[in-house]
Every structure is written in structure tokens, then in C-alpha cells.
């Protein structure tokens, strides 16, 4: 049985107005980025205020890149996160050490999802499966949020092979392509950042609404997951 996390997540939220736009549009989750090199980085104090504003209305997911477990835990507690997303080269042991905090483990995909397959094998050995897997596009320039797509057929095969772990699809998803991506991959959820931005780090309420509506319709069409 697959455990539920989110269906539609809007990542890279940097202000309360954008978070409220996600609530109004019907998204399930927001991502708060704690990776300083990112243009969507948000300081802990700001993230805490955003998180408090939407507490109980959205899942608050903190995005981290290769931080020690102790720092992830400290930030998660301070901000009031509901889950954390690990987007770097964190070992499977980190998932065990973060328990019981729900973990979304992200993988950057090139030609296949073998890296995710191998990682899950080790997670299973440790008895520490992630709450969700996120498949994103690989880029040499950044650990995520690049706006690039990848081979959806590879993601679709991964979803078929791993019915025991919920899968979210990311990587270049926009209002105009998210429905097709869902039909091809049949993921449990989708995630976007740049695809709904008016400018770097600033979301467009209209694009958020269009993305959520298109994703909701396609997820309904593809049936429960």
C-alpha cells in the first residue's frame, strides 16, 4: 500500500502572498528552499512566518541539499516543517536518522532511474524507506529547479516497478505540459517551481491556478494512486 504525501506541490515559495495563492488554488503542499545558492532560498525566520501563515492548510516541505542530519532536524523544528525533501547526495542512513520525520528523497535523472533503484534497495535493507521519491531532471548547474524536463518514459517505468513507494514527478513542469506528464508517468504527485513563476522567486497566482487545475484534472483521469 502506498503511503500518501502530496498530490500537487508548489516549490520555491519565498513569501506569504505566494503561499496564500497556493492555498487558494488548491495545492496540497509548498516547498521552502534552504539551499543558499538557490535563487529561491528563504531564510529560516521568513520560512517560519510563511509556514505559520498556512499551517493546517498546506503541507510544509523543507528542501535541503547535503546538510547534516542535525541541521535538518534543527531547521525543521524551528520552522515547523511537516516533511523534509533531501535533494543532495544524502546517504540512506540519513533517512533512518531523521525518523520519524517524513522524508521526500529527490533524484536527478538522466537516462534511467537506476540510481533511485539502487538507493531504495539500501533503504529497504536499513528499514528506512522514504515517504516519497521525487524524480527531477539532471543538470550540471544546480541540484534542482532548473526548469528542464527529462525522459518521462524512464519515470513511468520506475513507477511501474516500484508500487510500494509514492513517486512525485518534477522537472520543467508547467500548466501546459503537466497533464501530459501525468498521463505518461502516472505519478502520485507533481512538483513545480519555475513553471509557475512570474520572475525568479516570485510566483504568478494565475499560473499556480492553471497548473493546479490541469494537474487535478489529469490526476483524476488517471485514477487513485
Task: Please describe the topology of this protein.
Layout: E1 8-10, H1 16-25, E2 29-33, H2 44-53, E3 59-64, H3 69-79, E4 83-86, H4 92-98, E5 103-109, H5 114-126, E6 132-137, H6 152-161, E7 167-169, H7 178-185, E8 189-192, E9 197-199, E10 202-203, H8 205-221
Helix pairs in contact: 1-8, 4-5, 7-8
Can you walk me through this structure?
The protein has 225 residues and is α/β, with parallel strands linked by helices. The chain has one domain: Aldolase class I (TIM Barrel), CATH 3.20.20. It is 38% helix and 19% strand. It contains eight helices and ten strands. The protein has helices at residues 16-25, 44-53, 69-79, 92-98, 114-126, 152-161, 178-185, 205-221; strands spanning 8-10, 29-33, 59-64, 83-86, 103-109, 132-137, 167-169, 189-192, 197-199, 202-203. An eight-stranded parallel beta barrel has the order 1-2-3-4-5-6-7-8. Helix 2 (44-53) links the parallel strand 2 and strand 3. The longest helix has 17 residues, at 205-221. It is globular, with a radius of gyration of 16 Å. The mean pLDDT is 91.
Architecture, CATH level 2? Alpha-Beta Barrel
Strand content: 15-25%
CATH superfamily: Aldolase class I
Shape: globular
**Major sheet summary line:** 8 strands, parallel, barrel
- What structural category characterises the helix and strand content? alpha/beta
Radius of gyration: 16 Å
Total domain modules: 1
Mean pLDDT: 91
Q: CATH topology, what is it called?
A: TIM Barrel
SS elements, strand count? 10
- The strand order across the widest sheet is 1-2-3-4-5-6-7-8
In the CATH hierarchy, what is the class?
A: Alpha Beta
* Assembly state: single chain
Amino acid at each position: 500500500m502506498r503511503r500518501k504525501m502530496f498530490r500537487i506541490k508548489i516549490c520555491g515559495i519565498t513569501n506569504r502572498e505566494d503561499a496564500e495563492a497556493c492555498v487558494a488554488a488548491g495545492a496540497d503542499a509548498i516547498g521552502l528552499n534552504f539551499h543558499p545558492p538557490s535563487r529561491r532560498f528563504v531564510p529560516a525566520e521568513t520560512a517560519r512566518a510563511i509556514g505559520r501563515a498556512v499551517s493546517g492548510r498546506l503541507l510544509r516541505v523543507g528542501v535541503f541539499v547535503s546538510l547534516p542530519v542535525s541541521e535538518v532536524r534543527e531547521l525543521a523544528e524551528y520552522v515547523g516543517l511537516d516533511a523534509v525533501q533531501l535533494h543532495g547526495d544524502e546517504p540512506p542512513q540519513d533517512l533512518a536518522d531523521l525518523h520519524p520525520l517524513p522524508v521526500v528523497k529527490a533524484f536527478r535523472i538522466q537516462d534511467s532511474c537506476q540510481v533511485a533503484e539502487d538507493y531504495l534497495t539500501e533503504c529497504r535493507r536499513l528499514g528506512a524507506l522514504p515517504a516519497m521519491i521525487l524524480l527531477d531532471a539532471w543538470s550540471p548547474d544546480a541540484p534542482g529547479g532548473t526548469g528542464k524536463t527529462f525522459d518521462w518514459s524512464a519515470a513511468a517505468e520506475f513507477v511501474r516497478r516500484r508500487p510500494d513507494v509514492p513517486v512525485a514527478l518534477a522537472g520543467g513542469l508547467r500548466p501546459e505540459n503537466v497533464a501530459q506528464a501525468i498521463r505518461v508517468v502516472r505519478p502520485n504527485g507533481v512538483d513545480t517551481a519555475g513553471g509557475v513563476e512570474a520572475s525568479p522567486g516570485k510566483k504568478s497566482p494565475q499560473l499556480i491556478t492553471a497548473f493546479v487545475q490541469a494537474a487535478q484534472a489529469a490526476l483524476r483521469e488517471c485514477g487513485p494512486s
